[in-house]
Design brief:
The complex is a heterodimer of chains A (345) and B (300). Helix content of chain A is 79%, strand content 0%. Chain A is mostly helical and 345 residues long. Chain A is flat, with a radius of gyration of 26 Å. Chain B is 72% helix and 0% strand. Chain B has 300 residues and is mostly helical. Classes of the chains: A mainly alpha (345), B mainly alpha (300). At the A-B interface, helix 2, helix 7, helix 8, helix 12 and helix 13 of A face helix 5, helix 6, helix 9, helix 10 and helix 11 of B.
Chain lengths: 345, 300
């Protein structure tokens, strides 16, 4: 008691600066700060690259909108209206200024604001990706744990073979092959009619084939990674030996001790791979005529609609950068060995 | 370089743990055989596909891959003279697969080679020198990787106009940063090793260290990654063809064949299934070969 009273007055005046020092000195927060700062030039670079690339595409958007028979005067007028007569750097600056204010501009093709177009098409893409991700994760974890229980067993070999197919199947080829098998041959799904419908059951049914096309590859990657990681943990880590030695049941060692630790690696991979899903969405959505943001992107590229392409790419780039950031943070937060400055392996 | 590979890897990688003595002789022999099979079966499949695509058309006469007689249109598989059948225009499907395969091989190998060359120099530089060189180069790779590869490829293909050469340049935007990242990571690991410190202390120049000591030791990782990379590029190239912005219509490509078959999926599914399965086998052989080499060299 006396000791506490002695210490207390000493700590009080410095408490604030001590707290501030603890916050700023925390390795995790320093990492967050550093990563947030490096994300800014990456995002700027992506927006600039999109702007340059889309500006290089031949063809005048005003001409494209008005058709080839439009008079030069009308084209020039629309040019001015769309702000296309400004120099390149001015246009980039105006667009960037809008972006910072949350305004992605007006689409050339239908004169709607890009924000509203993205808001209209984004939900269906989000549902599709969520379906694919959750399905791939649940199945991947389940298969990985069962396979790792007995490495080189019959289930393990089977799961490796299936995931090798998943790893090697091009998503568009898988979409059509699965479409042929499940929709044409077995008649379980429709390929053509893909409105989400009104009830959740129809929505899930209509999203199943697209989600399968995207999710099968993810499942393969996740299950292989998790299986390898669990097996390695079971063979190498001291805490597994300890758990086994003190008589924890084999299932409990596998699920609670090894899998729980391996999941950190998996979560990091999921976050890291968010960006690569975009390519898949852009190809899969048009195949199943899903009105999502990926189909809209392909459409916008084809009609050279610069603001719309830029808006969608920025959204995708944001997701990718956020995913990378999230991966780093999760790694730091979940694995104390990294948080305190020691590397994991 | 290939001849030097085994002893180079032996210097950096720990030897495989010897098998436990409990394993019986027969079991041991079987493990040896299956290990060899895992390497040679995919290698043989790739070599066979390479042979069929590039040598077969010169040894045997095959029908042209871009035109056909309308009299032979829509033949089913196993028809005389067209063992995989013909499409609606009478073009032989087997020929289309061969000529499409040539394009896929050429593009994926060229793109990977350019990626290794340019990405390798950038990645080695970033990983070896570290500090601001690494920071600047890494940010550039981050931008290119954060940028959806497909958008870039589509836009570049559209800017340059569709042709095989332009498609190669467009796909390099994907392969260069990816290879650079792998080179950088591997270099950073190798840089920690004592022999690099020894080389530095003995006054060896930086570039000599990079090419004589770092490069040979990062090669196993690069080879296994690049095999996977070739598969990804073949799939990506097929995607561009599938969307109609790559190889143009009279010239056959696997992606375009799949895209064309999409419209008649119900009536004639073989137009989709045949190229899809060929693409699957090709990419799977690459992945299996990469896995087998990784196991053999102990690369992680």
């Amino acid at each position: 008691m006396a000791l506490v009273q002695q210490i207390q007055p000493q700590r009080d005046p410095g408490a604030r600066s001590g707290f501030a020092r603890r916050v700023t000195g925390s390795p995790a927060l320093q990492l967050v700060g550093r990563r947030l700062l490096t994300a800014i030039p990456v995002l700027l670079g992506v927006t600039f690259l999109t702007f340059v690339v889309m500006n290089l595409i031949p063809g005048n958007p005003a001409q494209l909108i008005l058709g080839i028979n439009a008079s030069p005067q009308a084209v020039a007028k629309l040019d001015a209206q769309l702000g296309l007569n400004h120099p390149f750097w001015d246009r980039y600056w105006i667009w960037l200024d809008g972006l910072l204010h949350g305004n992605l501009g007006i689409a050339y093709s239908n004169q709607q604001s890009v924000n509203s177009i993205i808001a209209q098409y984004l939900p269906i893409t989000c549902w599709l990706l969520l379906y694919a991700l959750v399905g791939a994760l649940v199945l991947g974890i389940l298969v990985a744990v069962l396979a790792a229980r007995k490495p080189n067993g019959i289930f393990d070999r089977l799961s490796l073979a299936v995931s090798m197919i998943g790893l090697s199947f091009a998503p568009y080829a898988l979409a059509l092959c699965a479409g042929w098998l499940f929709a044409v041959k077995l008649g379980w799904f429709h390929i053509i009619d893909n409105s989400l419908g009104n009830d959740p059951f129809t929505a899930i049914k209509n999203l199943t084939l697209p989600a399968l096309s995207i999710g099968f590859g993810l499942f393969a990657v996740y299950s292989r990674l998790l299986r390898a990681d669990i097996i390695e943990q079971m063979e190498r880590e001291d805490y597994i030996v300890t758990a086994k030695a003190k008589g924890v049941s084999p299932w409990r060692v596998l699920v609670v001790h090894a899998t729980k630790n391996s999941l950190f690696t998996l979560i990091t991979l999921v976050a890291l791979n968010l960006g690569t899903l975009i390519g898949a969405v852009a190809i899969i959505e048009p195949i199943f005529s899903l009105p999502g943001i990926g189909a809209e992107l392909i459409n916008a590229i084809n009609i050279n609609d610069l603001p719309l392409v830029e808006g969608i790419v920025v959204v995708f780039a944001l997701v990718t950068v956020a995913g990378n950031l999230l991966a780093d943070l999760l790694y730091t937060v979940l694995d104390p060995r990294i948080r305190y400055g020691r590397s994991a392996s | 370089m290939a001849a030097q590979l085994p002893d180079m890897t032996a210097t950096v990688l720990p030897p495989q743990p010897s098998l436990p003595s409990l394993v019986s002789g027969r079991r041991l022999r079987w493990q040896k055989i299956s290990r060899a099979l895992r390497l040679w079966v995919p290698a043989f499949i790739l070599l066979a596909m390479l042979f069929i695509c590039f040598v077969w058309p010169y040894v045997y006469t095959i029908p042209p891959g871009d035109t056909g007689s309308i009299l032979d249109s829509s033949l089913p598989p196993f028809s005389p003279g067209h063992w995989l059948g013909t499409d609606a225009n009478g073009v032989d499907i087997f020929s289309m697969l061969i000529y499409g395969g040539q394009v896929s091989f050429e593009i994926s190998l060229a793109v990977t080679a350019i990626g290794i060359l340019i990405g390798g120099i950038l990645g080695l530089t970033a990983g070896y020198f570290g500090s601001w060189t690494d920071s600047v180069l890494s940010r550039v790779f981050d931008v290119l990787i954060a940028f959806p590869a497909l958008v870039l490829v589509l836009a570049v293909a559209e800017v340059l106009g569709p042709s095989e050469m332009h498609l190669i340049w467009a796909l390099c935007a994907f392969s260069i940063p990816a290879e650079a990242r792998v080179f950088r990571g591997a270099t950073m690991v190798v840089r920690q090793s004592p022999y690099i410190a020894a080389a530095r202390l003995s006054g060896t120049g930086n570039w000599k260290i990079i090419f004589k000591h770092v490069l040979p030791n990062v090669i196993p990782g690069i080879v296994t990654f690049s095999l996977l990379g070739i598969g990804i590029i073949v799939i990506l190239e097929g995607a561009v063809d599938f969307l109609g912005l790559g190889i143009q219509i009279p010239q056959p490509s696997w992606g375009a064949m799949i895209a064309k078959g999409q419209n008649v999926l119900t009536a004639t599914p073989q137009y989709v299934l045949i190229p899809s399965i060929v693409l699957l086998i090709f990419v799977m052989a690459l992945n299996l070969l990469g896995d087998a080499l990784r196991e053999r060299w102990g690369v992680r």
